[in-house]
Amino acid sequence: MMNHMQYKQILTDAIQGEIDSQKFYQDAAGRMQDRFLKELFTRFTHEEKKHEEILRGFMEAIPETLAFDENRNYKVSETIDRPEVSDRMKPADAFALAMKKEQEAMDQYNALADGCIDPEQAQMFRSLAAMEREHKLKMEQAFVDIGYPEVW
Predict the structure, then answer these.
(1) pLDDT digits (tens, 9 = 90+) for 116-137
(2) How far apart are CA 37 and CA 131, in angstroms?
(3) Are the beta carbons of 80 and 99 closer than 8 angstroms?
(4) Where are the alpha helices (DSSP H) in the chain?
(5) I need a labelling partner for 23 at 20 to 30 A (CA). Which of 1, 94, 100, 123 fits?
(6) Among 152, 104, 111, 123, which residue's Cα sits nearest to residue 2?
(7) What is the 3-state secondary structure (H, E, C) of 6-34?
(8) 44: Cβ contacts below 8 Å, ≥ 6 apart
(9) What is the DSSP letter of 61?
(10) CA angle at residue 44 from 105 to 53, to 5 degrees?
């Protein structure tokens, strides 16, 4: 069974991942010349800060379960390449990059869950993966809303 220290370490690592994502998005926002993209990456920075705060809240009160829909996944990010950050990014590329980052986080948590022999620990990783899936879905919806790159 997972003990409190193991749970705390998992959350500490997840919090650091969210902090790293905040820095990435903040740096990307600083490189953008296009106002829309600068604001977009700034919003992503704030989203990751919210995720960090959620995880910090988990540290204070260990929940029995985390409520996320683990079955919903549009899989849009899996169909596109990961663009590089540039100051001349198109909005579709910015959303594509954000989707890929969220996909990577989701995959990381799922891989950790797959490697767990402790059911509680595995469930926590699955719940964290589901949280990242929700973030990815938001990016995918925004990507679809502005149109696929092929139509630009």
Answers:
(1) 777 877 787 888 888 888 888 8
(2) 24
(3) yes
(4) 4-31, 35-60, 91-114, 119-146
(5) 123
(6) 123
(7) HHHHHHHHHHHHHHHHHHHHHHHHHHCCC
(8) 21, 25, 28, 29, 98
(9) S
(10) 70
The reported pTM is 0.64
For residues 148, 86, 47, 100, the Cα torsion angle rounded to the nearest 10 degrees is: 50
The identity of residue 134, as a single letter, is E
d(CA 68, CA 96): 23
More confident position, 63 or 42: 42
pLDDT tens, position by position, 49-95: 988 887 888 777 655 544 444 454 545 455 556 657 677 777 777 77
CATH for 4-63+83-151, options being 3.40.50.300, 3.20.20.80, 3.40.190.10, 1.20.1260.10 = 1.20.1260.10
What does the DSSP 8-state code read for residue 79?
Answer: G
| Residue 113, token pair as written in the block | 């869950």
Q: Which two tokens stand for residue 10?
A: 């998992």
And the tokens for 94? Answer: 């910015």
Cα(25)–Cα(31) distance, integer angstroms: 10
